[in-house]
């Protein structure tokens, strides 16, 4: 299922996507929110209630918690899908659908029944589900953006019906020509109409409407794009018309659209089409369909709807060419054809002409038929119709104003407000029962927030090849190669400090895990954290990346990384040289990450074994929940001959302070199978009971959160640099790590890796100069170390302090807070006591 349709959901609003499923079919759907989260639920019309189950499993095995969402704002409707001849509803009928109440007010009057609530779908995650339908009916996908006060959301969506007999799919697509003011073809009617805006005194605005006549679905778009803005099931709606001002009112029970045709011919065509749908004059889809629907496969002869569509075309032609004799002849011939097609339904020429009447004076009888469009005579307009002119909040968002706001604000969005039912509130712990996070002077996240920064990810092409590693390691089998001096051509243009910063390429995985509305007993949160723990492995997926190693930082070297677009700031420091130890601290608005890593690399004849000591701690600032894990062992294979590649091995356990855990297992490859990339993750609860939620995928590509019937793609690997084979196998994220942007210019600590002269020369391709500078820096470091030893002193890190009494590579290093923290010193440019490294 590709070619997903883009939907646009206004702020403080919802959008309904309808689908009509036949008996014994499967509804197969996909949805992917773009950039921002959205609430999502799946319903069925009460009138069509029947047993509905998920494909390959019962509804109780759904991926997301099956808890009732906020009740939909709609009114009770009769079992009949026909309209009524006159208004008999209360005077506030249209006011009841004011968007001020959105999805939270009239539960007992709902004509939709919840099948499954998926709660919040997080941004950029593709979610796919299947539902088995035993008895056919009308279903609704509801996208709820009522929690967002100012920002519209875009969602990619697609649904299709699969029948067991033919496995044939019916695609819900809208194809139209935006440059054409009004057109009809086969089974669609399309034109521009005016649509009343949401707020009072805002008037009407132009929108493009497409009616799928076979499906009875009316959709609308802005005239300059193809994002779906709304959809109405015409057969299940009450359609009212006022020919005196060409206005149409469509009431689905969920919402009301107040429309106005731009001319009389358009108005006539829309009324005719709506009448055809509501009077069931549209021929039903065939029971067996071998080809996609088209105008040529709907029937062997012209249907009443097709004739009415053609009538619209001729009427337009007559209006545009009133003096043309040819048009008059075509008009007369067509009236004769229409009379023959209608047969006994047409009793006079006057009835036939009513289809074309620009004045529409003779159409009242058609409007007042039992199953057609309700006619609102100008002299008999009900009070309810007058009131709809005052209740403009029931129709549409102030879209143009909102679009302007978003352009000015960029990606800024109001913080969503979480909602819960009274039952959920009773079960949820009170705020005073939760651990309170520590607040420090650095919690302001300086230098965040920051204006967007331009970053160049590209790096120069590497024109040299690394030397054979065999001559350097054949005498050092089993030894730690980090202590062996290697030529600069064996390096890539990053340092180890920058290399371990690649763990932050996908911080949105953590934010999604902590902010997603999931229950602890589902295991989804711990599995999402596990996905983050594994995501940084993908930086090694290009096999060219495994031919070189990063520069070994000097003792006291630092590296900061601030990403205003990803919402984090990172500071790291090399705190020990022998053994090499690197300390990190990362802050975001909602969580912190801290880790101290001590990598070592040994050679075992045909492969390197890379192990990394040190625990990784991720803390939820709101709840105090802490997640811990360690880095997996990685094997660098085919060192002597063949294509070199990295392969993680063994198992990894991610633990939560609540008792939940995730167990990661890497697939084992055979002797001749090449690189093994498969990963499986299972979740365990506090009693070590395995949960039904799992993660499967490849560490080189993507991870999918699964149950039996639903799946979510929660992580996908980022892009590699163009021509990455000649650029060290870098990802685009890695390519930015050594760049000095406007945010860092003149602000960095003088010990920052970006300022290493040998690294800068090497990246620009001056290998000889880089080798010379590297040797000098390393010799200067030896001199400093000898001076400390002679004075009986030890190196003292500036931004981290050791916690514990054991070896420096077996404990944790804590970030120094307060006045002398890195970020406060950066703010004051207080660097006087730092070591001069170059």
Automatic annotation (TrEMBL):
Comp. bias (Basic and acidic residues): 788-799
Region named Disordered: 52-100, 378-445, 788-808
What the entry lists under CDD domains is as follows:
PH_Osh3p_yeast
Instruction: Please cite one Gene Ontology biological process associated with this protein.
Output: exocytosis
Q: Which GO terms describe its cellular component?
A: cortical endoplasmic reticulum; cytosol; perinuclear endoplasmic reticulum; plasma membrane
Biased composition (Low complexity) is annotated at 422-437
Q: What UniProt keywords are attached to this protein's entry?
A: Cytoplasm, Lipid transport, Lipid-binding, Phosphoprotein, Transport
Acidic residues bias: start-end ranges: 387-404
Q: Which SMART domains match?
A: PH
For this protein, the record's Gene3D superfamilies field holds: 2.40.160.120, 3.30.70.3490, GOLD domain, Pleckstrin-homology domain (PH domain)/Phosphotyrosine-binding domain (PTB)
MF terms from GO for this chain are:
sterol binding
Where does the source fall among the domains of life?
Eukaryota
Q: Where in the cell is it found?
A: Cytoplasm
Which residue range or ranges hold the PH domain?
187-279
- Which Pfam families does this chain map to? Oxysterol_BP, PH_8
Which regions are flagged for Polar residues bias?
A: 52-62, 75-89
* Family membership noted in the UniProt record: Belongs to the OSBP family.
The protein depicted here goes by the name: PH domain-containing protein
This protein's species is: Candida verbasci
């Amino acid at each position: 299922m590709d070619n997903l349709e883009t939907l646009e959901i206004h702020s403080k609003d919802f959008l309904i996507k309808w689908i009509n499923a036949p008996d014994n079919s499967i509804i197969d759907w996909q949805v992917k929110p773009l950039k921002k989260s959205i609430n999502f639920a799946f319903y069925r019309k009460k009138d069509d209630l029947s047993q509905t189950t998920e494909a390959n499993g019962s509804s109780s095995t759904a991926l997301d918690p099956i808890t009732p969402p906020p009740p939909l704002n709609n009114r009770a409707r009769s079992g009949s899908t026909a309209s009524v001849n006159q208004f008999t509803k209360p005077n506030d009928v249209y006011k009841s659908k004011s968007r001020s109440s959105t999805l939270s007010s009239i539960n007992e009057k709902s004509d939709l029944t919840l099948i499954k609530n998926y709660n919040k779908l997080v941004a950029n995650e593709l979610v796919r589900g299947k539902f088995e339908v035993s008895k056919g009916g009308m279903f609704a996908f509801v996208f709820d953006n009522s929690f967002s006060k100012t920002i519209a959301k875009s969602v990619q969506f697609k649904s299709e019906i699969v029948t067991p007999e033919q496995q044939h799919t019916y695609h819900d697509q809208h194809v139209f020509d935006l440059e054409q003011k009004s057109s009809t073809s086969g089974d669609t009617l399309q034109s521009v109409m005016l649509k009343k805006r949401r707020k009072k005194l805002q008037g009407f605005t132009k929108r493009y409407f497409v009616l799928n006549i076979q499906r009875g679905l009316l959709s609308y778009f802005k005239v300059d794009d193809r994002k779906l803005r709304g959809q109405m099931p015409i057969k299940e709606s009450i359609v009212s018309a006022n020919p005196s001002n060409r206005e149409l009112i469509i009431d689905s029970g969920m919402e009301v659209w107040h429309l106005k045709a731009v001319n009389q011919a358009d108005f006539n065509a829309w009324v005719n089409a709506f009448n055809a749908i509501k009077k069931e004059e549209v021929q039903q889809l065939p029971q067996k369909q071998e080809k996609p629907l088209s105008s040529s496969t709907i029937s062997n002869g012209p249907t009443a709807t097709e004739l009415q569509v053609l009538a619209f075309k001729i009427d337009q032609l007559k209006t545009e060419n009133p003096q043309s004799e040819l048009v008059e002849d075509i008009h007369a011939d067509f009236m004769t054809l229409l009379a023959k097609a209608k047969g006994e339904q047409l009793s006079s020429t006057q009835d036939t002409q009513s289809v074309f009447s620009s004045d529409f004076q003779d159409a009242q009888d058609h409007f007042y038929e039992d199953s057609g469009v309700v006619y609102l005579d100008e002299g008999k307009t009900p009070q309810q119709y007058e009131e709809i002119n005052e209740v403009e909040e029931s129709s549409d968002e102030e879209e143009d104003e909102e679009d302007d706001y978003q352009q000015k604000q960029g990606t800024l969005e109001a913080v969503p407000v979480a909602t819960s039912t009274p039952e959920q509130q009773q079960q949820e712990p009170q705020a005073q029962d939760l651990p309170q996070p520590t607040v420090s002077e650095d919690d302001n996240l300086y230098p965040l927030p920051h204006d967007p920064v331009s970053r160049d990810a590209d790096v120069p092409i590497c024109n040299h090849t690394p030397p054979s590693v065999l001559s350097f390691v054949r005498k050092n089998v089993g030894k730690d190669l980090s202590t062996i001096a290697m030529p600069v051509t064996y390096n890539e243009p990053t340092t180890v400090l920058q290399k371990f910063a690649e763990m932050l390429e996908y911080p949105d995985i953590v934010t999604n895990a902590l902010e997603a509305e999931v229950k602890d007993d589902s295991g989804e949160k711990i599995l999402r954290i596990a996905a983050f723990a594994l995501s940084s492995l993908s930086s090694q997926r290009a096999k060219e990346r495994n031919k070189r190693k990063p520069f070994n930082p000097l003792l006291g070297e630092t590296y900061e990384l601030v990403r205003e677009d990803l919402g984090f700031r990172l500071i790291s420091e090399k705190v020990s040289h022998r053994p090499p130890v690197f300390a990190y601290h990362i802050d975001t608005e909602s969580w912190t990450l801290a880790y101290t890593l001590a990598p070592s690399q040994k050679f075992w004849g045909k492969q390197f074994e890379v192990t990394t000591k040190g625990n990784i701690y991720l803390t939820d600032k709101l709840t105090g929940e802490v997640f811990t894990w360690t880095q997996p062992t990685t094997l660098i294979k085919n060192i002597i001959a063949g294509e070199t590649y990295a392969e993680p091995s063994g198992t990894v356990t991610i633990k939560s302070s609540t008792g939940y855990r995730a167990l990661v297992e890497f697939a084992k490859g055979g002797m001749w199978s090449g690189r093994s990339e498969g990963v499986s993750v299972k979740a365990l609860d506090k009693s070590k009971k395995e949960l039904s939620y799992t993660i499967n995928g490849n560490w080189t590509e993507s991870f999918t959160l699964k149950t039996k019937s639903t799946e979510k793609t929660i992580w996908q690997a980022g892009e590699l640099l163009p021509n990455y084979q000649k650029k060290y196998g870098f990802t685009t994220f890695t390519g930015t790590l050594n760049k000095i942007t406007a945010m860092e210019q003149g602000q960095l600590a003088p010990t920052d890796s970006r300022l290493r002269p040998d690294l800068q020369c090497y990246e620009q391709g001056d290998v000889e100069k880089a080798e010379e500078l590297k040797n000098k820096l390393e010799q200067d470091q030896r001199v400093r170390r000898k001076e400390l030893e002679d004075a009986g002193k030890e190196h003292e890190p500036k931004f981290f302090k050791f916690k514990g009494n054991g070896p420096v590579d077996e404990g944790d290093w804590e970030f120094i807070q307060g006045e002398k923290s890195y970020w406060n010193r950066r703010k004051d440019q207080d660097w006087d006591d730092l070591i001069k490294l170059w």
